Amino acid sequence: MTPALGWQCRIKSFCRGSGQWEDLRLHIEYLQFYVDEAMVWRQWFVQRFGYQSLGSLTDADHHSELLCWGRVRVLLTAPLNSLSAAAAYLKRHPPGIVDVAFRVEGLAAWLERFRRLGGRLCRPLQTWQRQGACLRWCQIRGWGSLCHTLIERHGTTPPVPNWPQIDVPSPSSMIIDHAVLNVPAGELPQAARWYETMLGFQSQQRFVITTPRSGLASVVLSHPQGSAQFPINEPTSANSQIQEFLNHNRGAGIQHVAIETPDIVRTVAQLRRQGVKFLEVPSTYYEQLQQRPGFRPEQADWDAIAQQQILVDWLPDIPEALLLQTFTEPIFREPTCFFELIERCPYRQNQRLCKTQGFGEGNFQALFEAIERQQAQRGSLQ
């Protein structure tokens, strides 16, 4: 696909990060939302996405609902009084993701180093133990209002901290692929450096994307010893989709979370039937797709892909390494948080079974244009 006139995407690949975290493995464990009505949003996630309810929990300050979709776990928390942490957050921000929790190994040693580096704890190290099983966790302050609960598990433990031991449904292959943080202009280098220094992420790629009307810069962070991926964006124009998010979110925050599925066509079709709305992709995108080097008519069901308006990318030298993705519309009243569905197709290279990597770099133009169309409808793009 040839970029439209005036559209630019500059990509730089590199690997930079602190060498002191070789023994730390990091994986995204669950997401916590602060919302106004936890039970209302529980119904929304169940009816729209097909999440399963794992129960509820109420204390003096909050009511929480725990849900799962395959191996994706979501904790929805609402305030019960004006002095609660959720109430304080919702006074500053609209509903959204407040905690991206990570599963780690060697939590105690990691915490000691984190403190030496000047890291800030929100909640101290705590331990749950039962008959050979052990759950340890703490919570740290991330960038902006974002927090990260760090969890270490041994044996059969509760699904999230401070939750009773319950039977969790057998997990399917749905998993959290990555979470994307938006930060104000000028904060990208500092935010990336913080996650490199404090959590051992490494910078893998840098993107600079511009259209005639907007732009953004992005650094892709991934963890060398774990599966966690954590891109960070900043706006490069006043009309940028990133700036629109920051304006409505009233500061930095998680813009979207990608859910990996083994069959995106089937998943998206089901979600559409359940009322989930996705960004629209024009039919011309699929006409241009056939002109890209490496396009193979026999490789996929292109009619089904086009019908579900799914974006497709591949490496020119490895066309069988397909990456398919699409994006929901924002789920809340304000244009802030949304979800991505992504399928990373397997392929063979040098007799090895590999999994497609990347973030759909060849789709940046189509994605940017789709989001700009929504911005124009909202009147935030001039």
TrEMBL record:
EC number annotated for this UniProt entry: 1.13.11.27
Cofactor: binding details: Binds 1 Fe cation per subunit.
Cofactor(s) annotated in UniProt: Fe cation
Name recorded for this polypeptide: 4-hydroxyphenylpyruvate dioxygenase
Keyword Iron recorded: yes
InterPro entries, sorted: 4OHPhenylPyrv_dOase, 4OHPhenylPyrv_dOase_C, 4OHPhenylPyrv_dOase_N, Glyas_Bleomycin-R_OHBP_Dase, Glyas_Fos-R_dOase_dom, VOC_core
PANTHER family on file: 4-HYDROXYPHENYLPYRUVATE DIOXYGENASE
Gene: lly
NCBIfam families tied to this protein: 4HPPD
Keyword field: Dioxygenase, Iron, Metal-binding, Oxidoreductase, Repeat
Keyword flag Metal-binding: yes
Residues the record lists as binding Fe cation: H178, H256, E340
Source organism: Halomicronema hongdechloris C2206
BP terms from Gene Ontology: L-tyrosine catabolic process
